[in-house]
Amino acid sequence: MSQYTAQNPIAYFCAEFGIDSHLPLYAGGLGVLAGDTVKEAADQGLPFVAVGLMYRGENAIQEITSDGMQQEKDLDVDPLSLGFEHVYVDDMPLFIKVHLTTIDVWARCWKKTLKNGVTLYLLDTETDQNLKQERVITHALYSGTEESLLKQQLILGIGGVKLLHALDIYPNLYHINEGRPAFLHWQLIRTYMDTHGLSYEEARDKAKSKTVYTNHTLVAAGNESYNVNLLKTYGLYYAEKMGISIDKLLEPGIEDNPEKFNMTRFALNVSCKASGVSLPHYELSKKQWPEYQWHHITNGVHFPTWQDQEMRACDKDGNCIWTVHQRNKKDLREYIQKTTGFAYDENRMVISWARRMAGYKRPQEIFDDINRLKNILTNLQYPVQILISGKAHAKDTQAKMFLQEMIHHMQHELSGYVLYIPNYNMEVAQYLVRGSDVWLNTPTKGMEASGTSGMKAAANGVLQCTVRDGWTEEVDWYGIGWDLDPNHLSSSFYHLLESDIVPKFYQRDENGVPQAWLERMKKTLTMALQYSATRMMNEYKQKLYNL
């Protein structure tokens, strides 16, 4: 670990971090994965800092109208009350200046220190030095126009490097977690040219040698492209400072269409290594971008955050596992009753679908045959409860329509047997991944880069019913869980429920324990150990960090 120290650490940049349920710094799995990564680095005592943006809660609260439509409300965020503190240098609060077209935008700096000195730094444009139109840059996560998103990414990448340097932190490696922070490359080039007297080409190559990149999605929405003219407007100042043409500066992000600047292509071209987040995602990435050095590192989850500690202590004791699971089911039912006002019989088999609401994740398809589904759920002898939770992005009208359609079914034909839990966040997720019997995963095949919610559920012995995609493609589910036919999703789901899942759950011994089900829970708990953030971080160290 000699190449990394407190002053020369690994710097992990991401546009979102899921550290705390009450802090709206994340939109979905990417942010929660980033939060788990920082926690794992702290657990291992790595020389490690993380850099992101302090969003102020715009559109952070989900409200469901009486007709099932999602609306967004703002959350008033006070970073000080949530464990963040101002960053000071020489007893003065630190502010970072980032040049955007013709003006300088200022960002105040926040920090949260985890154990072993691992620190998360966040930049925040809500400060008196800025005019109103600049103060709002970091108010909302992934909202606004193409230009407002670009401003956020420039603040994150350029401002993040400046923040660290202002604290005399000069990382020996920069880890770009997804493409949005990649503009840090511009600031590194300027720094190496100014302080080391390097040419543009020398500085560019040095910056690249110190940067690695993890791609998290092959879905177009996660791989932004910007209008080149917009990039020219914002990049001209930096090109002039480097003594090069704007076309040369933008060249790493130009693909086949010369009018578009692609952030994924840019991130790949400014990094010396890239990683995919599951085996199928790695293989697809290599196929799509074969000219880069790809590594396979499947995502993992932070067990101390997601696994019930009593479940961990059970080891392979079946009686203990079942007892803890029954308590978790009760806790989940009580939590849902407290937060929504709705209740259900916790002795029912509970199936949960919970993650970001998006069209390609296909939760709406399990409602294709309402009558057949209703017959399964309302069976008097073997009843089944379905729980659904997840927010759509504020601008994702398709996902909002799917959600409205599902809620309509919950209010009518499936009332009482399918419940929606609004405002999905880390707290809701913790209850669901511990208190469900079955975790349902329904993505369009080839669209889920990894997925991590199922890993969290598996860490608590929750059985998986899944389309084999992302991380679930890596597992042989025979005798552990069930895999769905991606081309006939609803019919295969109904068939598995009727023929195997429901009968197995309700097949009890003289003590009321489903022994065959319990054996699958034990196998699931063992399998889940392969999907910890500890394993993921160890692979980062080996394949990306050269530790």
UniProtKB/TrEMBL annotation:
InterPro entries: Agluc_phsphrylas, Glyco_trans_35, Glycogen/Maltodextrin_Phosph
One MF term in the entry's GO annotations: glycogen phosphorylase activity
Pfam family, one: Phosphorylase
A GO BP entry: carbohydrate metabolic process
Record-stated family: Belongs to the glycogen phosphorylase family.
NCBIfam families: more_P_ylases
Record-given protein name: Alpha-glucan phosphorylase
